[in-house]
Write the structure tokens for this entry.
Amino acid sequence: MAWFVFAFLTAFFSSLKDILSKNSLSRVDEYLAAWSLRFFAFLTLFPLLLFIEIPPLGPMFWVALLLSGAINTVSTILLMKALKSSDISLSIPLINMEPLFLLAAAPLILGEFPSGLGLIGVFLIMSGAYLLNLKENQKGIFSPIKAILQEKGPRLMIIVAMLWSISSSIDKVGLTNSSAAFWVICLNGFLSLSLFPLMALKSKSLDELPKNLKLTAPAGFFNGIANLFQMIAFSMTLVIYVASIKKLSSVLTVIYGGIMLKEKGLKRRLAATLLMVLGSIVILLGA
């Protein structure tokens, strides 16, 4: 049960991170936003080193750090590009496709196989993601899929979901070769360093950082907290279960888009929300 709490908290803080990132992208470019997201997460988590013991590092720690760091460098930039180019309620729900990719990635990398109920829960969450992208004027069962492929933001978010399905499994390898807190500190430190030269070379809004710290810094803070809770949950149960519950962050974000941003289709999206919540409950029962 404890893993579910940490996974849900991951979803909550991930939603706050996405909302603040979307707001900041109206003032800074995606490269500066991506670096800020990881750098301020690192600053948030670094003080934990004063309170935890540095664990003995397993033989796969550095390999996992390099692999996950490389994948998340790309996925962080693509995430910011997706948020910048599309409505938040259109792009964010597509991270719900990560459990689908995890069905292939987790058995290959970790040897983890979900139970029958777990698979049903993943299917329900994926069905909710489908409903979120269904529009009244669309015809045919493949209309939501066609709509996804027609916009840059959703296309990029599908790639992000695929990359996260791989990095999530690698993250578990990393934390099992160290500890949850130490791993997430090292990972965000690595990403801060890897994203810095990209930001320095490509960002056109570096001078906008000081005046927008009230948006970029909190986004990084919530990202750091979400990362920590996610790694703790990973250490307690199967990666695919944590990733599925984490997708509830998209539900909170879509509700924000409907109420605060006045985006259309809130009733339909709330119905999809209930379907996704049902899926998370089924996963919990099968864990």
Observations:
- Residues 2-286 form one domain.
- The chain has one domain: 2-286.
- The two ends are 9 Å apart (CA to CA).
